Amino acid sequence: MTTSIKRADALHIAFGVDEKYLHPMGVTIASIVKNNPRLDLVFHVFISKISSAGRARVEQLEKCFGWPVHLHLVDELVGVKDPGVNKSQAYISKATYIRLLIPEVLQGTADRVLYLDADILCAGDIANIVDLDIEDKIAAVVRDSASESMREELGRKGQALGDYFNAGVLYINIPLWMAGRVSGRALEKLADPSLNLRYSDQDALNIVLDGGVRFVDETWNHQYGLTGKLKKGRVGMDVPPDTKFIHFIGPMKPWRNWNPHHSKQLFLTYQALSPWADEPLDDSFTPREIYVYSRFMYRLMFQQGHWLRGLLWYGRFLQKKYLMG
C-alpha cells in the first residue's frame, strides 16, 4: 500500500467495513472514481482483520484506479490510537468502534475526511463537497429519513435533540472532532446502560454532536429503502437527477442476486469496473429474510406476469410460514 502522506488538495474518503462488505465497498469506490475522473482522491479502508484474498482485492483497487488506497487494520491500531475506551466499554463491537476511530487515526494526515457506509453508490460529481463551510462545525451531515421518530425515542431517554442525522455520510472536520473529544464522548454514551441506544454509534454521535453539525441537502445522502420500493411493486431507479450519493438503507441491498429492482443493474455496472468484476452476487438468506422477502416477491412476480417465478416464491413463503407456526 502507498505510504500515507498529507495531500492538501486531495479528498480523503474513509470506509469502516468487515470482510463481508469489502465487495460492495469496492463497488462504491468504482462509482466514485467513474463519476469524478478529475478529482484528486485518497481512500482509507478501516477493517478489523482481513484475509489474504481480501487484501489482494484491496491492493488491486489502487492498481485499477490509480489513487492511493490505505489499509488500516483496527486490531493493530487499538491501543495506539485509542479514543478513550475503557473496561466498561469493552463489549462495544469493533464495527461500532471503527467509525469512531477514523478521525483519530487520520489526524495529521488530513484536516477533512468524508466517511461513507459501504452500501452507497456515487451518482454524480462530488467535487464541491470541499466547498462546504464547516470551519466552525464538526461535520456536515444529512437529516435522517426517520428523523422525527428518532428524536422522539431519544427524547424519552432524556436526550432532547434539535435534529437527527444519518451517520452513513459524514464530512468531518478532524481538528474540531479531536478538540471536542467526540470519539471518547460517543463511547461513553454507548456504554451508558440507561440509554440502551437502539442505533448504536449513530445515536451516540447525534447526542454528542447536537448543535455542532451543519445540515446539508439530501443529495449528499439520498436514503433509498429497497424493501419499501419492492413492497409497492416499484422496481425502477427513481432518484433526483442531482443526487450525489444513493444510500441503500435497510436490509435489502442492490447486490442481492434475487433482487428484481433496477438497483442491481446499477450495482453491476460499477462492479464491472472494479477488482470484484468476477464476483458472484449474494444468494444468501437469513431465515427471517426468507419469510419477509418471499411474501412480497411472489406478489411482485404475479403483478408483473411472471407466473412460474411467482409460484416458486409463493412455495418458499408457504414453507417458511408453516415452519414458523
Notes on the structure:
There is one protein chain. This protein has 325 residues and is an alpha/beta fold. It is 39% helix and 15% strand. The chain has 12 helices and 10 strands. The strands form 2 sheets. The chain has a 7-stranded mixed beta sheet, with helices on both faces. A 3-stranded mixed beta sheet has the order 5-10-9. Strand 1, helix 1 and strand 2 form a beta-alpha-beta unit. Helix 1 runs parallel beside helix 2 and helix 11 runs antiparallel to helix 12. The radius of gyration is 20 Å and the shape is globular. The relative contact order is 0.13. The N terminus is likely disordered.
Helix/strand layout:
Layout: E1 11-17, H1 22-35, E2 41-47, H2 52-65, E3 69-73, H3 74-77, H4 94-106, E4 112-116, E5 120-122, E6 139-143, H5 147-155, E7 165-173, H6 174-179, H7 182-191, H8 200-208, E8 213-215, E9 222-223, H9 226-231, E10 245-247, H10 263-271, H11 287-303, H12 307-323
Please provide a brief summary of the model.
39% of the residues lie in helices and 15% in strands. The protein is α/β, with parallel strands linked by helices and 325 residues long.
Helix run count: 12
- Helix/strand structural class: alpha/beta
Number of strands: 10
> What is the residue-averaged pLDDT?
88
Radius of gyration over all CA atoms, rounded:
20 Å
* Uncertain parts: 1-5, 85-91
Biggest β-sheet, characterized? 7 strands, mixed
From the spread of the alpha carbons, the general shape counts as globular
**Order of helical and strand elements:** EHEHEHHEEEHEHHHEEHEHHH
Q: Termini distance?
A: 53 Å
Biggest β-sheet: strands ordered side by side in the sheet: 3-2-1-4-7-6-8
Helix content: 25-40%
Q: Note the beta-strand portion.
A: 15-25%
